[in-house]
Specification:
The complex is a heterodimer of chains A (111) and B (116). Chain A is mostly beta strands and 111 residues long. In chain A, 0% of the residues lie in helices and 60% in strands. In chain A, strands 2, 4, 5, 9, 10 and 11 form a 6-stranded mixed β-sheet that branches. In chain A, strands 1-3-8-7-6 form a 5-stranded antiparallel β-sheet, with no helix packed on it. The N and C termini of chain A lie far apart (36 Å). Chain B is globular. In chain B, the strands form 3 sheets. In chain B, strands 2, 4, 5, 6, 9, 12 and 13 form a 7-stranded mixed β-sheet that branches. Chain B is mainly beta and 116 residues long. Classes of the chains: A mainly beta (111), B mainly beta (116). At the A-B interface, strand 4, strand 5, strand 9 and strand 10 of A face strand 4, strand 5, strand 11 and strand 12 of B.
Chain lengths: 111, 116
């Protein structure tokens, strides 16, 4: 099974609302990364949070990491239609030199 | 400033044929990766490379071959294509994997492969 599991699998909200996506993982990590994928495109890196960090901000994005619960959340504030995309969390397992992706959350922002 | 490119973008082939997907990056990143993306499975790592002439298997390597003779190129070959290899293939590169773990990965635009 996947190291990272996103929840929910799909999320539909109105423009201007906040969107929260969660990611759970199984083993100890070095860092956790969030990526966005617009339909038919490659993935774009959004934010990286290291295992010794608890919260990180980038523009309208806020990522939290709780290593005791092995979980992370991505919050997008004041959503826009352009935020419509799939969002993936990816974990870097300690000792490994690769990312393991979850299956993603499909976010739809309704105008 | 090309970044990371993949070719072809679309490919239709027949079962049993050999197919090579190309990946080229202009950043001199040490690490390169090949993923496949299928509905219900997310992204799965096929092979990766830490440097020229160093490659390693990922989660789903069977039926694929890679090589890395130059830092900037990382071709993926399907030796004898099967229908189950119909997928979207993404190449990615990364600068380093230091003490803080694997760094940001930069993805190509993908190759949509259909095996008939």
């Amino acid at each position: 099974s996947q190291q990272g599991e996103e929840d929910p699998q799909a999320l539909s909200i109105q423009e201007g609302e906040n969107a929260t996506m969660n990611c759970s993982y199984k083993t100890s990590i070095n860092n956790l990364q969030w990526y966005r994928q617009n339909s038919g495109r490659g993935l774009v890196h959004l934010i990286l949070i290291r295992s010794n960090e608890r919260e990180k901000h980038s523009g309208r994005l806020r990522v939290t990491l709780d290593t005791s619960k092995k979980s992370s959340s991505l919050l997008i504030t004041a959503s826009r239609a352009a935020d419509t995309a799939s969002y993936f969390c990816a974990t870097v397992i300690q000792g490994a030199q690769k990312l393991v992706f979850g299956q993603g959350t499909r976010l739809t922002i309704n105008p | 400033d090309a970044g990371i490119t993949q070719s072809p973008r679309y490919k239709i082939t027949e079962t049993g044929r050999q197919v090579t997907l190309m990946c080229h990056q202009t950043w001199s990143h040490s690490y390169m990766f090949w993923y496949r993306q299928d509905l219900g499975h997310g992204l799965r790592l096929i092979y990766y490379s830490a440097a020229a002439d160093i490659t390693d298997k990922g989660e789903v390597p069977d039926g694929y071959v890679v090589s890395r003779s130059k830092t900037e190129n990382f071709p993926l070959t399907l030796e004898s294509a099967t229908r189950s290899q119909t997928s979207v293939y993404f190449c990615a590169s990364s600068h380093t994997a230091g003490t803080g773990g694997m760094d940001t990965q930069y993805f190509g635009p993908g190759t949509r492969l259909t095996v008939l």
